[in-house]
């Protein structure tokens, strides 16, 4: 027999969250083959509309016609700097409690982009994420971009071990688990809000494996304290479990989900 499969499109943070839940999904759905697709936002949306993907976890689509979109995270951006940078050293000396006992950063001092004029920044992530970063870097007299990469995760690694900075969602300060992680700072200049969402094609009935994956995904976000307080994962799953057009209509409206 051909095993069932679940095809999930992932963008940016979705890949890191998948690493946290993948093993548990395999235990719960051992006969389901999980296929992951990482592409630019517009390509994932086109594949979803064409029925080539079961769902995508990505930045909130600009154009959601024909899609059911469930907002999951609204997050701010942080500046990531190597621990060896003078700004990091100064703040680490001033804030002894910047890191918790588990090594995770729990305080985010504020720095201005003007203080980072000497920093070479890495542009990271897929298309729209890079646009947000360039918008922020325009606050600098002369934006200094070192190089580009499609992976936000590798960007945090680069900022940790090389003299490069990055602008990444706050979520990455939690997801990136390494003793060599960089220091993260709140930006004094206003930055856009980063939004992350689940999207499925309207009218699509998800399989039990699909609902299980969403349950694990949203539960992990909730465990990080990033799922909105008024958003009920059980209501999301109940609505997505409905068949036909009712699925799209009931989930498309956030008030019907966020109780």
What does this structure look like?
This protein has 259 residues and is of the alpha/beta class. 37% of the residues lie in helices and 25% in strands. It contains ten helices and eleven strands. The protein has helices at residues 13-28, 41-49, 86-94, 127-137, 152-161, 171-175, 208-223, 233-240, 245-252, 254-257, and strands at residues 4-10, 32-38, 55-59, 67-75, 77-81, 110-111, 120-124, 145-149, 164-169, 183-187, 194-201. The strands form two sheets. It has a six-stranded mixed beta sheet, sandwiched between helices. A five-stranded mixed beta sheet has the order 2-1-3-11-4, sandwiched between helices. Strand 7 (120-124), helix 4 (127-137) and strand 8 form a beta-alpha-beta unit. Helix 7 runs antiparallel to helix 8 (233-240). It is globular.
């Amino acid at each position: 027999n051909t095993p069932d499969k679940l095809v999930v499109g992932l963008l940016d943070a979705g890949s890191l969250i998948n690493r946290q839940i993948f093993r548990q999904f395999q235990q719960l759905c051992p006969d389901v083959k999980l296929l992951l697709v990482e592409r630019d936002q517009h390509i994932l949306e086109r594949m979803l509309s064409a029925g080539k993907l079961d769902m995508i976890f990505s930045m909130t689509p600009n154009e959601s016609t024909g899609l059911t979109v469930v907002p999951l995270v609204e997050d701010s951006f942080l500046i990531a700097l190597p621990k060896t940078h003078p700004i990091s050293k100064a703040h680490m000396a001033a804030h002894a409690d910047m890191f918790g006992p588990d090594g995770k950063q729990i305080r985010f001092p504020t720095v201005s982009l003007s203080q980072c004029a000497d920093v070479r920044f890495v542009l990271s992530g897929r298309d729209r994420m890079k646009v947000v970063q360039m918008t922020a870097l325009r606050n600098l007299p002369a934006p200094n971009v070192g190089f580009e990469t499609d992976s936000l995760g590798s960007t945090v690694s680069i900022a940790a071990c090389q003299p490069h900075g990055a602008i990444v969602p706050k979520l990455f300060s939690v997801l990136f688990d390494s003793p060599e992680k960089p220091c993260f700072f709140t930006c004094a200049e206003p930055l856009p809000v980063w939004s992350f969402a689940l999207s499925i094609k309207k009218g699509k009935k998800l399989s039990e494996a699909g609902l299980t994956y969403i349950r694990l995904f949203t539960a992990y976000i909730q465990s990080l304290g990033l799922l909105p307080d008024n958003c009920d994962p059980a209501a999301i799953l109940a609505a997505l479990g409905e068949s036909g057009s009712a699925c799209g209509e009931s989930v498309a409206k956030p008030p019907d989900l966020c109780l």
